[in-house]
Amino acid sequence: MTYHEDDLLPISALQHLLFCERQCALIHIERLWAENRLTAEGRHLHERAHDGAPETRGQLRTVRGLSLRSLEWGIVGQADVVEFLAPDGVTVSESLPSRVAAELRDWSGWTVTPVEYKRGKPKKDDSDRVQLCAQALCLEEMLGVRVPDGALYYGTRKRRTKVPIDDTLRQTTARTIERLQEMVASGRTPSAVREPKCSNCSLVELCLPDALAPGRLASRFVEQSFAEHVIGER
Fold first, then answer.
1. pLDDT above 70: percentage of residues in the chain
2. In this predicted structure, what is the pLDDT of residue 227?
3. Of 9, 66, 84, 226, which one's alpha carbon is 20 to 30 angstroms from that of 54?
4. Alpha carbon of residue 41 to chain centroid
5. Burial tier of 83 (Cβ tally within 10 Å: 0-12, 13-18, 19+)
6. Looking at the DSSP assignment, which residues form a beta bridge with residue 164?
């Protein structure tokens, strides 16, 4: 299947989906968004990563803010950093593309590595690795190369972690993309379920997990909220 340009979904939605299906639906189906300290810090980190002109050091060309897409997988996004390592005997030209890497060029023999920047520390789930792998899938389609590895840079650690783009990660990413496409196509937002991670979600006031969770009476939630409001004014 080949997706149309107008039907491409953001790569960032994969991370939203793995964090919380309801959050993903609120953002990408209902078009709701709110920011908190964590999302603001993450946004600033990505903006810094995207800034700056392309650099060439020896055989390595570093490009920032590179636009990505895959018509095969139906995804679109932007890489924080992509590194292009030239094969032996190839002179790295300063004219290498800074925004669109799919210009007509023979990329065979080049080593292409996407690098994604994150504000915190490595997560227990696969969300960061899946997002990185999705970028690799886009680069492979755009350039006609195999991307064997990527890297994640965590702000807390202040160092890179190598991520092999192996078969297991590719399969996990493929399943996640398929789940995302199916959920968005359905147009249905999952029910709210209160979990500990809700406290750090910027959409908690829009999601209302306490009010809308299955089995929770709306009247009881209103009474509790009113009581908390009255106590807070005393």
1. 77
2. 47
3. 9
4. 15
5. middle
6. 149
Question: What CATH number has the domain spanning 5-189?
Answer: 3.90.320.10
Count of residues for the chain?
Answer: 234
Spatial neighbors of 174 by CB under 8 A, at least 6 apart, are 73
Contacts 24+ apart (CB under 8 A), 176-179: 176/14, 176/17, 176/18, 176/126, 176/130, 177/14, 177/73, 177/74, 177/75, 177/134, 179/17
Write down the domain spans for the chain.
5-189, 191-234
Task: Give the number of other Cβ atoms within 10 Å of residue 158's Cβ.
Answer: 7
Tell me which H or E stretch contains 182: helix 167-186
Torsion, Cα of 179, 19, 140, 58 (10° steps) = 180
Burial string for 141-154 (b: 16+ CB within 10 Å, else e) reads bbbebebeebbbbb
pTM: 0.80
Find where tokens 């790295």 sit. Answer: 92
